[in-house]
Amino acid sequence: MLFNSIVFLFAFLPILLTLYYLTPKKYRNYTILLFSFIFYAWGGVSYTFILIGSILINYLFVKQIEKNNALKKTWLIIGLTVNVLIIVLFKYLDFLIDNFNILGAVFISDFSPVPFKNIVLPLGISFFTFQQMSLLWDVYRNENTEKTSLSNIALYISLFPQLIAGPIVRYNDIVGQIKHRVSSISLFRSGIQRFVLGLFKKVVIANTCGELADSIFNSSYDSLDSPTAWLGIVAYSLQIYFDFSGYSDMAIGLGRMFGFKILENFNFPYISKSIQEFWRRWHISLSTWFRDYVYIPMGGNRNGSYKTYFNLITVFFLTGIWHGATWSFVIWGLFHGFFLIIERIGFKNILHKLPKGVQWFYTIIVVMIGWVLFRVEIFSDALLYIKKLFSFNLSSEFSFLNYLNNERILVLILAIISSSLFFMKIKEILERRSLLLTKTVQTFMDLGVVLLLIISIIYINSGSYSPFIYFRF
């Protein structure tokens, strides 16, 4: 079930909200837990049993870690291994088989290829598996001093706003809210505003940019001129940002409607002036997860430069493969890891001496080249596309104009402004002065939200099926 679907907007969400607030407070968690399973089952009933089984298995590991001080490290390792095996089975098995077959054909003359298993990827498995692994780590570290319960763990893992595509929530950040949370009109109101903003970002901005990007990326790269190639990657860069941040906004907004305060996942990443800063602003819940559960346990930057570089490359190899079982994602991750190492070696010191505009230009170019590697599945095609970017050839017919119309131009302008430093400053001013806003201004803001909702619904009715990009991860 998609947040941007009619059935969710006009059936699932209103019914759940009504039943939730009619339910006595001590039973509300069970109401939202039941509807979270219904939400997940909408995408495939059979995989709901995998989700439930995964929750039960991890609950057993948690209880063993809690009560066996002498063996808790052993139980942690077993629990983490089981979670890794689950995600390998469903997400990476065919990828491993494919590479095994390639190597076998190269080195063994009479090699018989292993058949593919064609296992369908359960929705959100990368997200909820990482949440379960962080739960095991945190219980092992005794960061959660209270004993866990099955119902709390089940709701933590399956909470529908963030179940499919994040943010990746830490148990310690939300367990207090699971046990006791206070709903208010102001929190509910801000939840609606945030949800509608995310909906608009997805169905109007991301989908429009996506149509433009697809029309260029699905064409023959041999015939692309440089402006068209740049138009395509700018459109895709905006699409993936507004698609994913739009989902995160909707998840955060939905959480607020039920009294949960889910942490932010994006902070204007396209204003970054280094790749290091970009990863502090992009998919924050994932980058901090790898920092806390992989990079720091490996030693972080505490054991010399070469060990630090190895740790960074390992983390970004895993970051790439987390996104998908193809070498294009691995190359994308290693590409970012390479520039992080270059910045650590000394380039960042040089960068800081340059004008801020130059720092930003370097970063956005690197990020967009990275998005080519991310978007194009075949590496040779990605290299051809990048070559077209820097060929600087302009066709006499200005062919890039054929991909534009008034709607796309307007949305591109809106997207660029909305992801800019200028817009971030306006947002910060409004947030600081939110308590000082007059009722008249608040009324106009509410009317603006209603207008965005109406526009979004019009786009939903007139558009085609458009799942979120990160649903496939």
From TrEMBL:
Topology relative to the membrane: Multi-pass membrane protein
Pfam families, alphabetized: MBOAT (PF03062)
Top-level taxon: Bacteria
Single GO MF descriptor: acyltransferase activity
Subcellular location: Cell membrane
GO terms under cellular component: plasma membrane
Entry-linked InterPro entries: Ac/AlaTfrase_AlgI/DltB, AlgI, MB_O-acyltransferase, MBOAT_fam
Keywords of the record: Acyltransferase, Cell membrane, Membrane, Transferase, Transmembrane, Transmembrane helix
Transmembrane portions of the chain: 6-23, 30-62, 74-93, 114-133, 306-323, 329-347, 359-386, 406-424, 444-462
Chief location bin: membrane
Gene Ontology biological-process annotations: alginic acid biosynthetic process
Family: Belongs to the membrane-bound acyltransferase family.
Classification via PANTHER family: ACYLTRANSFERASE (PTHR13285), PROTEIN-CYSTEINE N-PALMITOYLTRANSFERASE RASP (PTHR13285:SF18)
UniProt protein name: MBOAT family protein
Organism listed in the record: Brumimicrobium aurantiacum
